[in-house]
Amino acid sequence: MSLIQRLSAVVPFGTIWGLVWPQTVMMLCTMVIGLTDIWVAGRINADVQAAIGLSTQLQAFLMVLGMALGAGAMAAVSQSLGAGRRARGQRYAGLVISVAVCMALGLAVIGYAARGGILTLLQVPGSLRPLTTYFLTLTLLALPAQYVMGVGSTLFRATRNVMMPLVVVMVACVINVVGDLGFGLGWFGFPKAGVSGIAWATFTAVYVGGALTFWFLRRCRLFVPGVVPPLRWMRRAAPYLLKVALPAVLTSFLWQTGYLTLFAIMGSLPENSVIALAGMTAGMRVESILFMPAMAFNVTASILVGNTLGAGDKAAARRIGLATVGTGAALMTLVGLAMWPWMPELAAVFSPDAAVQAQIVGYLTYNILSTPFTVGSMILNGVMTGAGATVYALVVNTSCIWLVRLPLGWFLSHLVWGEARGVYVAMLISMTVQACAMFWVFFHRDWTRYAMRSSSLHHPSAPYTEVSREHS
């Protein structure tokens, strides 16, 4: 028996690939949406490009609670299915989607009331404030639909249904791209609306995607009338959901706050701050090519590790986790190497401004070098999410961004070089430290103990319709 055959006997590479490729296409569509926004904005001017970058980071920050709920749902639902407890998984799904909608509405109201103070806190340059305020307002109005899309997609994937969220993202992608090009630049015979065209194209795409997600949730019976569990079940279920979600929300909050602080460091550079912001924004979009399949491996690791731990097989969970990390990191490193010679050409695609192009190349240089560390760390985070061990990501990720990246980035960019290069070097160093720390956790800590007991939450409560097998 060959080495590949022996490995395939203990690691389900076919299953991994079957989950990874649709999610990779989802990430591709998401990347196309972001890249189109930045490309169209760059054809208007650098201010619009920088404003979109800032509003996108604020949107990511506002999605923190949704991401945390998704982490809890991924662990609870995937482990429930692994244990053969499908009704329990459905109850968790109903609970999570209901909470997500309520949270999004609350955040939208609070964010709208505090938007002026938020931009002041982030030291947004005066020239960018009107544009950033405009984009942020529409982002807040679209937040409920964004939450339904995000949390709903996680619920589908936790049941190994990766095709329905793929359809949702593809539809949203087509609407966003056609709207950006048509109404942003006046292509296809549409009236040219410029900045408003970009903003409203994104808004429309998000709401159509949210509505389609909700319809699919109903069709799959993940969310139907009566699926929200009774209070007595919620009281028993909530502790585990909170055990996973609270560290996840703190991780996301501190990570996104860290990135917003990083933008503030860039925005307060002594010279060329707007150019640096525009370059970093575009560079992050190009870099997302690497993160696209990496996130697919991250979610796949969560699903499979959750399933195997739900079935009580800790050894298989470790094997699958390590195989997913190794495969994903190796593949993405090869993609990074393939991108390396083409950095100037990629930069030229996203901005006609030579100064912005130079910033994009600088950003990509250091972040492509960090690919094996960044991707390895991302997938290990997925392993911990599937196991419910999100506390490890909280300690490692937030320590690396707040104790390494931000202090070092400010020191190098403001005191040593006086330019954005200091931030990029700090990003490389912090990701190297983060990956090493996560590998230490994987090999030396008992992270499998955070999984649910197979006997937990066994209630003879009123019957619930199980999730349709044909859709899972």
TrEMBL record:
<dbReference type="GO" id="GO:0015297">
    <property type="term" value="F:antiporter activity"/>
</dbReference>
<keyword id="KW-0406">Ion transport</keyword>
<feature type="transmembrane region" description="Helical">
    <location>
        <begin position="424"/>
        <end position="443"/>
    </location>
</feature>
<feature type="transmembrane region" description="Helical">
    <location>
        <begin position="7"/>
        <end position="40"/>
    </location>
</feature>
<keyword id="KW-0050">Antiport</keyword>
<feature type="transmembrane region" description="Helical">
    <location>
        <begin position="363"/>
        <end position="384"/>
    </location>
</feature>
<keyword id="KW-1133">Transmembrane helix</keyword>
<dbReference type="InterPro" id="IPR050222">
    <property type="entry name" value="MATE_MdtK"/>
</dbReference>
<feature type="transmembrane region" description="Helical">
    <location>
        <begin position="93"/>
        <end position="114"/>
    </location>
</feature>
<keyword id="KW-1003">Cell membrane</keyword>
<keyword id="KW-0813">Transport</keyword>
<keyword id="KW-0812">Transmembrane</keyword>
<protein>
    <recommendedName>
        <fullName>Multidrug-efflux transporter</fullName>
    </recommendedName>
</protein>
<dbReference type="InterPro" id="IPR002528">
    <property type="entry name" value="MATE_fam"/>
</dbReference>
<feature type="transmembrane region" description="Helical">
    <location>
        <begin position="197"/>
        <end position="217"/>
    </location>
</feature>
<feature type="transmembrane region" description="Helical">
    <location>
        <begin position="60"/>
        <end position="81"/>
    </location>
</feature>
<dbReference type="InterPro" id="IPR048279">
    <property type="entry name" value="MdtK-like"/>
</dbReference>
<feature type="transmembrane region" description="Helical">
    <location>
        <begin position="163"/>
        <end position="185"/>
    </location>
</feature>
<feature type="transmembrane region" description="Helical">
    <location>
        <begin position="134"/>
        <end position="156"/>
    </location>
</feature>
<dbReference type="GO" id="GO:0042910">
    <property type="term" value="F:xenobiotic transmembrane transporter activity"/>
</dbReference>
<feature type="transmembrane region" description="Helical">
    <location>
        <begin position="240"/>
        <end position="269"/>
    </location>
</feature>
<keyword id="KW-0472">Membrane</keyword>
<feature type="transmembrane region" description="Helical">
    <location>
        <begin position="391"/>
        <end position="412"/>
    </location>
</feature>
<dbReference type="Pfam" id="PF01554">
    <property type="entry name" value="MatE"/>
</dbReference>
<dbReference type="GO" id="GO:0006811">
    <property type="term" value="P:monoatomic ion transport"/>
</dbReference>
<dbReference type="GO" id="GO:0005886">
    <property type="term" value="C:plasma membrane"/>
</dbReference>
<feature type="transmembrane region" description="Helical">
    <location>
        <begin position="322"/>
        <end position="343"/>
    </location>
</feature>
<feature type="transmembrane region" description="Helical">
    <location>
        <begin position="289"/>
        <end position="310"/>
    </location>
</feature>
